[in-house]
Amino acid sequence: MGDGRAPNTPSPYIREKRRRRRAEILHAALQAFRENGYHTTTLDDIAERLGVRKTALYHYFPDKESILYECHRESLGEIARMIEEAEACCERASEKLAYLIREHVRVMTETLEGSPLAFEVPALSPERRAEIIAARDRYERVLRDLVLAGIREGEFQQVDPKVAVFAILGAINWIARWYRPEGAIHADELGSKFADYLVGGLMCRQPG
Prior knowledge:
67% helix; 2 domains; 9 helices
């Protein structure tokens, strides 16, 4: 008897195998982008890291830009999850903002190869670029709204929310330029310090 799947529907095993292979391709691509730059990296470079021929990549992605685009989508999906978790586990604006900063730093340090994505959006086609920028803008609005909420609740000083968010994201994105996993600062400690410093800089000063 059949297993109830429609004809040509891949089995769960095949789907999982493809998912893992796609993830491996994205990881290898991000490493190459980080080391060589997006424009210098070729599909041959990515394939070489995986020990396969370039033609094997075409089973998953039609071109290099599609790989970059999917890397962005994966990153933004992680950010969407972070926002949901912050809303679920935190009450005050300062707590939510600190949670997002810690999680953003964690993602940046765990997938350090992906950090250059912040600087490679212009390499996408106009349609894909617009999609990614819109999603990124939504994240920035979430952060600005948290800063505004903190001001209203009396937690934060009267600051320009837009400038505050640019400072936060600029600091996090720059981690890629200097952080090394084998260094003296552990990723968890780094996230906590960033949250303490960046949120602490917004908090109202207690008199005396």
